[in-house]
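lol ok so funny story. i was supposed to be doing the assay writeup but got distracted and ended up predicting the structure for this chain instead. priorities right. anyway since i did it might as well share w the group, maybe its usefull for someone
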Amino acid sequence: MSKKKQFVEKVTAMEDDFGQWYTDVVKQADLVDYGQVRGTMIIKPYGFAIWENIRDELDRKFKETGHSNVAFPLFIPESLLQKEKDHVEGFAPEVAWVTHGGDEKLAERIAVRPTSEVLFCDYYSKNIHSYRDLPMLYNQWGNVVRWEKTTRPFLRSSEFHWQEGHTAHATDEDAAEETERMLGVYADIAENYLAIPVIRGRKTDKEKFAGAKYTLTIESLMHDGRALQSATSHHFGTGFAEAFDITYLDESGESQFVHQTSWGLSTRIMGALIMVHGDNRGLVVPPRIAPTQALILPIAQHKEGVLDKAYDLRDQLKDLVRVGIDASDKTPGWKFNESEMKGIPVRIEIGPKDIEKEQVVLVRRDTGEKEFVALTDLHDRLPALLEEVQQNLFDKAAAHRSEKTSTATTMEEFKQTLDQKSGFIKAMWCGDLACEEEIREETQATSRCIPFEQEKVADTCVCCGKEAKEMVYWARAY
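and the output, tada:
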């Protein structure tokens, strides 16, 4: 078997080895290559094109909600990083340090940013003076470094791309509103663009961001029943402001601490995209974020008029959808497999017989269904079909999540469900850290979130049997 043949055919079945399936899809869909430093990745053109579409939608929404883009340095002096105790303790194990500049040892170590809170705080302390300066609504697109022990492309890498929003407000209420609003933006992107259903909720104190008053999250469920934290939004209160002396004069001339937020979404969402929608034929990309929404494949293109008609068709459709054409000399079978591996939502086939009948064949990536469409109807049918694919991917993922969501009222039931079915488990919790840690130790499941939409599935805590305070989603996670 040739190397090219293997490229389009060899993907480990997800039922046999989900981790290997993921790696196969990432590589064979041409999303990434491995960097020279452990845990780093080269995001290739197709992978970055998907990320750009996600990024562009997010950026548009950030600007619609009044945020401005800025760019802060990659380097953080150690003394600055140490200013907020909880924050530095939370990130210390993952920080990469610069100790030399050329041949000279630096007088002070410099951290390669794992996140930029302290940089923004230092800036705010020098640039916020009056209530008229507030709110200060910033977003940064960039990359960060976290020295992870175990890595996997997109899901957990030593360097990754993301955006981090940082805002300062006059009141706690304003900051709380911002924290929830930005979580809503993330949920909108996940559900309406990536077709990934999410659960919105609050992290427990154990799982919240280091230094935050509280953390909000959107949680999604992968095909193998593991959860993935897809984006987070943090309310900092005045903790960072007190550490960095970020104050403003209110309308009465009184000095007040600002209230801050921070929120982020990274290339990790690409991992969710792969693991929620992918199948044993490769990647499946929702139309709204697909770089190529429809790919024209000329059949028997060596015959007179076929290529000309295919290019004419592309020109007619290019203002309607993101359309591509594969006019290479590869075999039709190769082209079909490659388009499926890359998850292109719709394939448009056109050959001599189709030209004669003035039609095309549309093939859906999500279901494999074919339909014959008259050329005169294509302008109406193609956008409608793309919307059908988008909705079907969401519905399918929602149905899978529902099927993989269970309820447990005792630890025995909790363990049995997790081992036999996996997925989300809804269970009551007393609010005690000891119970949360015991559940993790005994089952490897973590609290994913305390959902905004609460249900009372029992009266007592699933772990200790004491009176329950709230329902929590639990799962093993990436």
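The radius of gyration is 25 Å. The longest strand covers residues 159-169.
back to the writeup now i swear
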